[in-house]
Amino acid sequence: MTSQSTTSKDSIDATRDDGKWLSAFYDPVASLYTFSQCITLSDINADGDNKLIIADLGTGSYQMKLKVYKGTNLVSENTLIDLPTGVATFYMDQNEPRTPAVAVASGPYMYVYKNLRPYFKFTLPSLEINPLEQDVWNQVRDERIDVGVLREMLEGMRAEGTSLTVRSLRFIQLQAEDLEAFANQYKHTPLKKQTVITSLGTMKKSLAEEDAISCLVLGTESKQVYILDPEAFTVLSTMNLPSVPVFLNVSGLYDVEFRIIVACRNGNIYMLKRGTKNARSCIELNSQPVGLERMGKNIVVGCMDETLQCYTTKGKKLWTIKLPASITSMENVDHKSKGFKAVMVALSNCEVHIYKDKYLVNIIKTEDIVTGMKFGRFGREDASLIMTTKGGGLIVKILKRTAVFEEKDATAGPPVSQNIKLNVPKKTKLFVDQTMREREHCVSMHRMFQHDLYRLRLDAARSYVKALETSMNPVSTNTTEPLKLSAQVQGIGPTFKLTVNLQNTSISTASFNLLITFQFDDRLYNIHKTYIPVPMLVPGLSYAFETFVDCLSDKGISDTIKVFVLRQGRSVPIITAMISMPVSETMVVV
Amino acid sequence: MGFLDRLAQMLGLKKKDAKVLVVGLDNSGKSTILNHLKPEEAKTDIVATVGFKQEVFQTKTLQFTAFDMSGQGRYRSLWEHYYKECNGIIFVIDSSDKLRMVVAKDELDTLLQHPDIKDKRTPILFFANKMDLRDALSSVKCSQLLGLDMVKDRAWHICASNAISGEGLAEGIDWLTEQLQSMLKGK
């Protein structure tokens, strides 16, 4: 069942944020530039007060920070070396008090913080290097080949489609004079090929409890998914994907059974299971995914074509909703004490829509476009919604205790357009009288009209033939000379500028030996160039020819000027344009 | 009330009984405040209240029966069951929890709109608790955030308090005693 629901005005009014959310905090200048993946809520001090942990992207090149908020106060800031791609908290041991560790994925590293202090740095296992590339660099080190040969060989390898190391790629990019220095600097260090973490998730290891030990799940640029052991930081299992993972959704227990749903850069969604090495293809989207959430047995995907789509885990499409604007962020709402599960979608029109199944149940309006969202326990409040905006603001909203979401289709009932009256014009008495007359004199009316029509046709044909004979029309009908002419006059006088536009309308034949000339009353006007030779006309281009016209009369008389286009050596014009000159302003003598 | 009771009351031996409802968000310090008001020997360790507890304490002229309600979200619906029988309300605010001030305001508004409270002129005492904390708001700021200036149909009073040391509690309870006494007399 696929349903397309359009949001009508009435339905939106019914689901407006009618006091379901309390605005707890709004700081438009918090300068937090981050995304949903880099926001998490966790009780990192084990005091029952959940903190907000945000990996701030800063400007993208500096000021990247790991920020921790307690309530509305910033309590801690750690500088990050590289751009963060994800933040997760997880319990790594059984020690009391139960303080979780914070994991920040950044470049090829996983920085683990405990008690907000750097604790461990995990490096992704390096990838295999092409033996030929290794060999070439070894030869350079032993000075058996020079840098020019090295560059040629590396370029050859790249052309064949071999994936090279970062060092080789940089080397190929360099200018010829820098090659020697670069090779000398790096040739003694061993070649290394690293990948980058693109997505991060956590998975409980053997118990499904809230504070059970969790494994980290990493998706990498090398199209792999790693599962890490939380205590020893060793890779428990590696799984391969056909494309680069961008969104991970993990469920289940590592030791029992788990499912990882992965949205990839190629617009497909894959499923990974316990014990499999390679991904099973599941869903092919018709547009790139921008968010992936799991709702019970279904997968809800937000796509770049402004749609929200729902699939079963088997890959069957259940429904699609067309959204009013493009999606900037998605978040899962799971309010356990109310048993309310929904999907939140932040849109680029400064709204956050909440969908329970396929029904729009609530709309939150924000001052700015929301780029990152997190719903969960913040401080001591279970149903808090943290939003970061495009302008770097921070918004905290709290769901009211008494708020209820109606789970019905807001767009139910007949469409609104059914109630709009058609604009049918009214008939007056005049119309009725007219019909009466038509009924009575139908025969004579018909005859009269036909007679007039014959005369009209005759007149039209006569005028047309006359125009053809004198070549008075501005568009040439002659197939050997397809030309189009238009002329305009500019200015208020006494001097006017006359522009003649000439175009060859044929497909592939150029026109030669044409000239433009004018016919005018020489007592009234003086044209500066009465004869303009036309260069070769290339088909399709419009050529402009200009001349100045002086008005000689100061009595406010105007006349028409004729423009002729002729072929050299023939006296009959091909086409003609008539310009009725405007009345000239009199010369003002100062 | 029996004859003996009335006699004892007239002689000032037995005090009048007043029922107060102690509400506020979780972790605001309701139980700690009541614990501090109780006689020395009855004091206990404070844990999170489940459901509600009934506490008794005395001032010079009144005997208070306090319903110590749990402030956790899932127990807040219990509050309204006690609105009918209470003579006064103590509303405790965690003045260091700026984030949840809106939640406190929301709960206060629901309380004031409740039919059992709306028509009765129940006095309300606010404790801006945890004033000892560094990032605590002043009682003026608290009353501003809760919109107390809009409450015009009943007697209310706000005082900053520290339930651990007991600072500010006496002032508040004195005010409440005064209010309740005049109300009980008027009956």
Provide structural commentary.
- The complex is a heterodimer of chains A (590) and B (187).
- Chain A is an alpha+beta fold and 590 residues long.
- In chain A, the strands form 9 sheets. Chain A has a 4-stranded antiparallel sheet, with no helix packed on it. A 4-stranded antiparallel sheet of chain A has the order 2-3-4-5, with no helix packed on it.
- The N terminus of chain A is likely disordered.
- In chain B, strand 2 and strand 3 form a beta hairpin.
- Chain B has a 6-stranded mixed sheet, with helices on both faces.
- Chain B is an alpha/beta fold and 187 residues long.
- Classes of the chains: A alpha+beta (590), B alpha/beta (187).
- Chains A and B meet through strand 1 of A and helix 3 of B.
- Chain B: Belongs to the small GTPase superfamily. Arf family.
- Chain B: Its main location: membrane.
- Chain B: It is found in: Cell projection, Cilium membrane; Cytoplasm, Cytoskeleton, Cilium axoneme; Cytoplasm, Cytoskeleton, Cilium basal body.
Summarize the topology.
The complex is a heterodimer of chains A (590) and B (187).
Chain A: H1 9-15, E1 21-27, E2 39-42, E3 51-56, E4 65-70, E5 73-79, E6 84-90, E7 101-106, E8 109-114, E9 117-123, H2 131-141, H3 147-160, H4 166-173, H5 179-186, E10 197-204, E11 214-220, E12 224-228, E13 235-240, E14 245-253, E15 257-264, E16 268-273, E17 280-284, E18 289-295, E19 298-303, E20 307-312, E21 317-322, E22 327-335, E23 340-347, E24 351-356, E25 359-365, E26 370-378, E27 381-389, E28 394-399, H6 429-440, H7 442-470, E29 483-490, E30 495-504, E31 514-519, E32 525-527, E33 531-534, E34 542-551, E35 560-567, E36 575-580
Antiparallel strand pairs in A: 1-28, 2-3, 3-4, 4-5, 6-7, 7-8, 8-9, 10-11, 11-12, 12-13, 14-15, 15-16, 16-17, 18-19, 19-20, 20-21, 22-23, 23-24, 24-25, 26-27, 27-28, 29-30, 30-34, 31-33, 31-35, 32-34, 35-36
Helix pairs in contact in A: 2-3
Chain B: H1 3-10, E1 16-24, H2 30-37, E2 52-58, E3 62-69, E4 88-94, H3 101-113, H4 115-118, E5 124-129, H5 139-145, E6 156-160, H6 169-186
Parallel strand pairs in B: 1-3, 1-4, 4-5, 5-6
Antiparallel strand pairs in B: 2-3
